[in-house]
Amino acid sequence: MPYTLMFEDLLEYDAGKAGITVPVTLRLGGTYVGVEAKLDSGSSHCIFERLQGELLGLDVESGSPEWIDTATGSFLTYGHEVTLSVRGFDFEIVAYFAKDDWFNRNVLGRHGWLNRIRMGLIDYEGKLYLSRADDES
Amino acid sequence: MTTVIEAVFENGVFKPLVEADFKENHRYKMIVEEPGTESESRINGGADATETTEKPDTYRTREMEWLSKHRHEYPGEYVALDGHRLISHGTDGREVYQQARAAGVKVPFMAHIEPADNLPFGGW
Question: I want to staple A106 with a disulfide (CB 3.0 to 4.6 A). Which of A37, A62, B35, B47 is the partner?
Answer without folding.
Answer: A37
